[in-house]
Amino acid sequence: MDFYTLMISFFILSGAGIMIYSIRQFRSTIQLLQAFYIRKSKKLSRMITLHLTMMAFFFFGYIGFLFFFLAGADTGIELITALVFFWGAIFVAMGNGIHKGMLSTIQESYKSTVSISIALKEEQEKLLTINRQLLQTEDVTILALAYQAELRDGETGRHVTRAAEYTGIIARQLKKDSTQSSYLTDQYIVDLVKSAPLHDIGKVAIPDQILQKKGPFIPQEFEIMKQHCQYGADIICKAQEKLKFRSFLTIAVQLTLSHHEKWDGSGYPAGLAGKSIPLSARIMALADVYDALRTKRYYKEAFSHETSCQIIREERGRHFDPEIVEAFFAVEKEFERISLEQAD
Ligand SMILES: [Fe+2]
User: Which residues, other chains included, contact 335 with Cβ-Cβ below 8 Å and sequence gap of 6+?
Assistant: First the structure.
């Protein structure tokens, strides 16, 4: 075998080796692609298998053609054909290498995206936990403030938690079937229930001899007692001024100021009537009165649930908004359950 034949054979064999190597590389690239993107795509898997088969046919066909061509070709043409085949094989190998590199880069970036999203999820969980803890702290702080006023009044403090539950029950019932349902958003109800314990917070500003008096008020004392609504609203307004956003305190101010207003305009402090009384205060009024009726006071025994219902029915359109009385009678059994479960 002369040097010329040896050189041509070298190019053909090397080219064939590179082609085989390229096919193997192509297969591993496809495996990477399948693992990464298209593991579940049967259609794409079939297309890749078809592509591989056609590549193998092309490869063996090309080799066969090359040998047949070289057998009858002129000197020089043989060398050019072998070189074209050799460089063709190298380009195929380079193309495969580039594709594999691209896929590896994508895979790396995918891995880093996954790790970033895991870190973000953990961060989100932490924020949610902190938010929950802040909300619980807020609730406890509200109750502590409310208890302070209640304990001075000689109450056990359960009045504020029961009254808050009653407001939630009425509000949810009103939301189901009422002209005000669009106003009663979920957030409104949450804010209402959160605010309700604060309705008598203004009592902290009422002198002990009036607040703790075991007997009926004389008119002057009652006038002082009435001021607890305005004091309470002022206390909450002061707190609200510190905030730069709208909070539940807006509702807290409304119901604290107006929870003793009556539907017929005979209440206090402003003598508001009908729907000029904020909805939150109209709901609070019924919740507050029901709890007062069901609780023992120095001047009366605790009324039964039935008697309390009867009094509320009689006050429909006088003390209470008729629509709220309707809502109350739809859920009065829940009121009775809470009054028994959380009795003083
Ligand atoms: Fe009050």
Answer: 166, 169, 290, 305, 328
pLDDT tens digits for range 218-272: 999 999 999 999 999 999 999 888 888 888 889 999 999 999 999 999 999 999 9
Query: Would you say 292 and 277 are in contact if contact means Cβ atoms under 8 Å apart?
Result: no
Three-state DSSP string of 143-157:
HHHHHHHHHHCCCCC
Could you tell me the distance, in angstroms and rounded to a whole number, from the CA of residue 106 to the centre of ligand 1? 67
Beta bridge partners of 316: 320
Ligand 1 centroid – CA 111 distance (Å)? 61
Hey, is 320 helix, strand or coil?
Answer: strand
Residue 247 burial (CB count, 10 A): 15
Task: For residues 265 and 233, give the distance between their C-alpha atoms in angstroms, rounded to a whole number.
Answer: 20
pLDDT at 225: 94
Distance of CA 313 to the CA centre of its chain: 40
Question: For residues 344 and 326, what is the distance between their CA atoms, to the nearest angstrom?
Answer: 27
Going from the Cα of 307 to the center of ligand 1, the distance in angstroms, rounded, reads: 22
Q: How many angstroms separate the alpha carbon of residue 142 from the centre of ligand 1?
A: 16
How far apart, in whole angstroms, are the C-alpha atoms of residue 36 and residue 105? 12
For 80, the enclosing helix (H) or strand (E) is: helix 77-152
CA atoms within 13 A on the CB side of 254: 20
Helix (H) or strand (E) holding 110: helix 77-152
CA atoms of 91 and 155, how far apart (whole Å):
91
CA distance 229 to 21: 88
> How far does the centroid of ligand 1 lie from the alpha carbon of residue 171, in Å?
19
CA distance 10 to 14: 6
**What is the Å distance from ligand 1's center to 260 Cα?**
6
